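Student: I would love a firmer grasp of how sequence relates to backbone shape in proteins. I am handing you a single protein, as its sequence and its fold in token form. I am told such tokens are a discrete way to write the fold. I hope you can help me see how the letters and the tokens relate. Take your time, and here it is.
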Amino acid sequence: MTMLAGLALLFGAVVCFVFGAKQLTDTKKKQAACTAPAAARLLRYDEETRTETDEDSGDIVQVTYHYPVFRYEARGVQREVRCAGAMSKDTWAIGAPVSILYDPNLPERFVIAGDKNANALGFVVLATGLLCLVFGIAMLF
């Protein structure tokens, strides 16, 4: 049984390494492509409510995610874009100016200028893979 669990953890490590590396590579490519600065304004937060299981209690709960929607001008055209990642509603006030960088070849693609959390997901997945690797090896030996 320990051997099977160890192999499962090693498989999980490989999966985490692949997805973590892909996430970091995609983020790096997006950041490299988004070079044109623009002054955006926060229009609103789109809300999505999902049914999830609470990890602590096991209860079914409703969780609301907030996605910032910005407006900015790129190449003489007003653009309205939504962040792919959810954020706290306290991140910016409605109407707040936000500096962004957009892709001149695909003006709808953008990053928030100076965003230090852009790589966080990739690093978390890689760290999870490292833990799976360590525990998987430990279980096999």
In short: The chain has one domain: 2-140. Residues 2-140 form one domain. DSSP finds two helices and five strands in the chain. The helical segments are 2-33, 120-140.
